[in-house]
Amino acid sequence: MSTAHPPQDPAPPTVPSETPHVHNDGISYPEDSMQIDPPMGDINLDGFEATATSTVSPSANAQNFEISTGISTESTGADTFTPGAHSKPELSDASIPASDSDIEQEARKEANVEKRDGEVELLKRALDSDGIGNTNTGSEDEDESGQETYPLDEPIKDALMSALDDSFNFTGTYALSETYDLAATPCLVVEGLGPIGLPLSTVEACRLRSVCRRAPFGKGERTIVDTEVRDTWELDPQNFKFANPAWDRWISSVALPKVCEELGVSSTPSPPRAELYKLLLYETGSHFLPHQDTEKAPGMFATIVVVLPSQFTGGEVHVSHGSLHKVFDAAATSAFATTVLSWYTDVMHEVKPVTGGYRLALSYNLVHTSSTLRPALPGAEGPIIRLRSVLQAWACAERTGEEYCGEEPPQKLAYLLNHKYSHANLSFDKLKGTDAAKAVHLREICSELGFVVYLGSLTYRVSGGCINDHGGGGYGYGGWDDEEDEEDVEDLEMDESDETSCSVQLIAGLDGNLVGTEQDLGMEELMADESDFKSLEPDEKEYEGYQGNYGGTLDYFYHRTVLLIIPDSQHVTVVNSLGGTQAAIAGLKGTTSFQPSKGEYELAAIALGSKGADAACTVIDAAIRWKEPYLFRDAIQSCNLINDIKVFGQSRLERAQDVFGFGYIGQFIQNVLNYSTNNGDRLGLIEALCIRPQYVEEHNNFPIGWLDARREEVLRTLKAPTPNDIPFLVEGALGLGGTPYLRDTILPQLVAYNCPQDWWKAFIGALQAREVTDGGAVLVGWVEPVLISASPVFDQYITATAQNSYRFAFIDDIERLAPTQFLINQWSTERRARATERLAAPSLADIPLFTELIRAKKTFLREVLLPRVQGLAFSIEFWTALLEMLVNLSKEKDIVDDNWTSATLASMKQPFEQALSQVASNAERFSMLDRIEHVCLHERLIRDYIVERRQWSLEHLLKPVAGEISQIIRGLSGMGAYHTMLLIQLKKFQCAMDFWQQLITAVHSRSCSMDGKPPFVQQLVELAVSQADIKPAPKPQPVPTYSYHYYGRAVETTPVVFGVIKTLLTLCVSTNNIRTSNSVFDRVINQCTEQEAIETTLVPLVPIITDFLDLHKLPHYTIPFDSFYRRTIARYMHKVLGKKPNPVAVEWKGGQSRCACADCQEINRLLAQPASQFTWRAVQAKRKHVEDKLRGHAGLTMTTIRTGSPHGLKITKSPMLTAIVVWQSRSTAGMKLLRAVGSNDVLRRIWQGEPGGIEAISIQLSGGQLPPSMQSAGVQDPVSQQKRPLVTTPASSSAAPQPPAPIPSRHAPPAVVGSSSGSHVEPFRRQTQNAPPAVVPQKRKAVIEIGPIDLTDD
Fold it and tell me: Do 360 and 281 touch, CB atoms closer than 8 A?
């Protein structure tokens, strides 16, 4: 781990200045003795020498102190840690030179006396910050002043919790300091002087002091001037004003609200008013001894002091209230920032002597404006004394190991805050009410007594059983249902808590981020009781759910913010356990102190352990603010990246130089200049250091010429240049000899780095601009060497650029950079001619350029452009743009040759025809032809060529798609043998159905305009039928839907084949080619020769065909649709229905429950399905009921399945019963299929030419025996019937109607929509009269009876 301790080597003497310098501690030293010499060794200054020295270490000071006072440092522990030692490295007596002058000898004696007094004071400060806050050797019951401490009669945790719970009702602070980097500028105007510039310079300060007067102070009833008490200059408000109106607005809208918020002053019913009181000027030595403000205006209750930008050192403001004490040091940011200080009037405050520069401030009276009680600072002595005594006892116990009430001192304690906070932007200044008051007092006392306070995020967890979860869930529809388990966790309540635990994570930084890791916090370390959480609603709940044999665990989570209090001795251990370097870095970023505490030193040491740039920069910021050179050294040595100015930051380095001086950081600046990779950053740093304000002390200044030498060194050792480097390179060349230095030193490096063309363009532009600015006095002759260096890069870019327009634009840009330079103009002319002769592959973007080139030289088209494009791949965008440009130019006089079309066509043919042969679609091919034809519509030669190419495209047609129909039709127009050509091309492809549909429709609608003939449309339809993808529909896949009985349901989707068939039939009907429908039916029936194909394709196709006929208002017996019906029914009966099972089997008696309950009805439904067995799951009572109802039925076997939950009833059907059920279901489906054809009249018309007519079909579907007279009418497979000629049955046939035959119709479906005749079709009914005896079944059993279909229409 990095440490912050200085080395122990003695300091060599330094040269004093003539004027003494007053330090913060009031000791007078020679000016040069303030120089902080580096422990870094000698610095190579390239011809300048400045030997690095070292200061006397704190341990050496302690030894000197022991010699002069006889007091040992061992008893105080000062040798273990000295927080303030690094900020003021003292000098030995040898640092003050001898002089023969009596005055000088006297001054030396006085300086030695004051120096020894300063050493005593320094050591006292170190001892005061040893982590305990009590440096006496007396009784542990006494504090620093010898007063008896508050005795503890309880453990430290309980005592501290009680002290913090005590009355801290005041929500503000007694004093505050706030720094603003971007405050408004007042534009101070002083009477008799005019405007006073800020930051305040020495000259302006002297002018201002000339119109001010000595500031008096009140002593009793008198107002006197005594510079021993108050040494300050003041000016009344009537003698100055603010020219910037924004200043008063800033005071009222920014500074005043912040002051009121920090002081705990309410802005209601009316906000306080800030009255300008005085302008105060402090010069070196100015001070104001401890005092309290008096009421200078009615209602005044506080003072506001605004420190304006004015560089100074010293001048710390010490404020105290009771036992509380603060120090405000604005010197570190005084040059450019505005600092606002404020305190109540009864607060004791002191302004320490200003040790350098001038401190300019405005004093305001804060006045109460409402009728309510005036704000006042309440007394908090009781709680503060109690809090201080507990912390002193803890510190003492930590040091001695003493136990309180039998308990060892805690490693850390966490105090629960009253309010709940979001971690977004959470920091100490965001705390509310009493939380803020407790944090303010606790942090102030802890910083004095050796403790560190953090904000932490506490997670308190309580675990226990759940009282209102009974283990839901169960079997519902679809099996076990978990949804009943998913109760809302928010509704659950805890029975009894079984376990409590808590964890904590640090909240660090100004952004409120959680840093580090979350660590367990012992309950003994939490200052809270279980009862503190019982009354609260948990922030989160988690429940693991019912576990079957035992209940789940319910967890309550409470998220709160805590104050984490850690003794200095445990600080490193605790911070490392809670996040280590990450937490330390964030903690340091949140500090604003100017005097480091031991805890802050430890944070710095932890942070540097990360070896990262962020940690190093954070520690460096703290070291600059604390003025700790050795900590600065440790930080820059911890990370090599810090040597890069981009990482370190130029402003940070400037501040470090101001604070530590060149003698300490000179070598580091040299390292930064060598290590940084950006030339602009390197040279910019040098320029910034050159123009630092003159008020910087002499020991901070650089040796004369050192920065110039560094500048020249950087320019001699350039890193890879960037555009940001250009201004610095130009200025560097100007400062070191102009063009010769540029030519001999800078340009060779730029060439070696191979800078890109854009960089060179910017460089030339900057040089030209500087030449114009300087009138050419310094940079005469720069063009030639720069152009020689840049030309190879420019030429390479021009050659590599693939677009001609970019090439010429680049050349134009170079010429525009320096239009007055002859060499650049000459170079541009040569490169332009070369680019014209060596064209890159032309592109669409080059058309404007080619237009200008053709206008400039007529032969450019024939001699350069057309030969260049002839061998290139064809681009329709480029050629249409080129042809359009040429057509337009041909309208102008004497721009292009008269025969430009023939020359252009000759160059276009080869790439164009090659492109036509390589395209992937007809649409693209015809689109290219159309675009060329459109552009050259009036150019006959090109137009005739396009017509020729269009005919070629039709003869070499690619596989067409629907989107190309219009272009194909257009190409066919006017061609005599178009239909023959098209049919030949289309037969080569398997075209999609949407293509055929659109093509046939388009040809049919345009047949007259195309001289088409109906046979051509018929040929297209037949070709579409032959190419159609007609295959049997796939078997529907079941979707598992889980229930008690687990069964599958088919997915109801319409197979694609049905859409194809309907499209083909629509084309046949709409183009008057209805007889071609027979070809469609032939393809379908020929594909459906197996049972599965019949059931999945032919059976569902029957109602589709019926609906199709109804849609087109065609009778159902329309030829050839009647043939489709007959052939489909015959194939179903032959391939699917088959022979009826043994009619005398006992299983025909039934196999179903006669009970009407829902369970029995569900069982009957499952029994009627073809499956030979199934399992039905239900509770025992339901299973027993079903089993009782089915017991004794022939063909059924029942078994109980005792696995799973609930148990199941497995029912198995015998093979005969299964066959009967299957046949019955198929017979019923056949009856439904027959009914889907149409009404009784339609059925008779369709089957009237068949042997036995519809009666034979009815008997066979019902399983009856045909009478002898119909034996010859047995149904045959229609495979041999597909070639029979179509027979037309006139609708007006006078044949006498045949007597209706009964067709079994039990469970018959409702009638389908009737035929186009418009007659209403009655549903099939059971015939009760006039039935032929031979057809009516003689015996029917109730279980197996399928009633006859009544063919009468009564």
Answer: yes
- Concatenated DSSP letters of 120-169: HHHHHHHHHTSSSS----S-TTB-TTSPBP----S-HHHHHHHHHHS---
Alpha-carbon distance 657 to 624, whole Å?
9
Between CA 1242 and CA 1313 the distance in angstroms is 11
Instruction: Using CA atoms of 527, 528, 530, 532 in order, give the dihedral in degrees to the nearest 10.
Output: 180
Q: Which 8-state DSSP code applies to residue 497?
A: E
For the record, the structure tokens of 1192 come out as: 């004794």
Q: How far apart are CA 393 and CA 1114, in angstroms?
A: 109
Give the Cβ contact number of residue 115 at 10 Å.
Answer: 22
CA-to-CA distance for 1120 and 1078, rounded, in angstroms? 6
Question: For helices 629-637 and 650-660, what crossing angle results, to 10°?
Answer: 140
pLDDT tens track for 1080-1093: 999 999 999 998 99
For residues 484 and 463, what is the distance between their CA atoms, to the nearest angstrom? 24
Of 114, 125, 123, the residue nearest 30 (C-alpha): 114
Q: Which residues of 1172-1193 are buried (b: 16+ CB within 10 A; e: fewer)?
A: eebbbbbeeebbebbeebbeeb
Amino acid, res. 915: A
SS3 224: strand
pLDDT at 209 over 60: yes
Spatial neighbors of 471 by CB under 8 A, at least 6 apart, are 546, 548, 551
- Crossing angle between the packed helical segments 598-608 and 581-589, to the nearest 10 degrees: 130
Instruction: Report how many helices (DSSP H) and strands (DSSP E) the chain contains, helices first.
Output: 47, 37
Distance of CA 1055 to the CA centre of its chain: 46
Lowest mean pLDDT among 399-408, 448-457, 838-847, 1129-1138: 399-408
Residue 76 to residue 144: CA distance in whole angstroms: 13
Strands (E), 358-450: 359-367, 413-416
Nearest to 217 by CA among 239, 205, 234: 234
Helix/strand/coil for 1010: coil
Following CA atoms 190, 194, 197, 201 in sequence, which dihedral angle do they give, to the nearest 10 degrees? -80
Count other C-beta atoms under 10 Å from residue 906's C-beta: 11
The enclosing H or E element of 246 equals helix 245-250
User: Mind listing the pLDDT tens digit for each residue in 132-184?
Assistant: 333 333 334 444 444 444 467 788 888 888 888 876 666 678 899 999 998 99
pTM of the model: 0.48
509 — alpha (psi -120 to 50), left (phi > 0) or beta?
Answer: left
Mean predicted confidence (pLDDT) in 658-681? 85
Name the DSSP class of 352.
P
Question: With left for phi above 0 and alpha for psi between -120 and 50, is residue 739 left, alpha or beta?
Answer: alpha
Angle at 479 between CA 474 and CA 484, to 5 degrees: 35
Rounding to the nearest 10 degrees, give the CA dihedral for residues 918, 919, 922, 926.
-100
Pair 451, 565: CB distance under 8 Å: yes
Are the beta carbons of 578 and 452 closer than 8 angstroms?
no
pLDDT tens-digit map of 376-420? 666 556 777 888 888 888 888 888 877 777 778 888 899 988 887
Indicate the pairing of strand 1196-1201 with strand 1208-1213: antiparallel
Residue at token pair 């007063």: 147
Q: How far apart are CA 61 and CA 63, in angstroms?
A: 5
Q: Which whole-number Å values give the CA distances from 1141 to 631, 1148, 1221, 1224, 1227, in the listed order?
A: 106, 10, 10, 10, 12
Name the residue with tokens 């304006």: 308
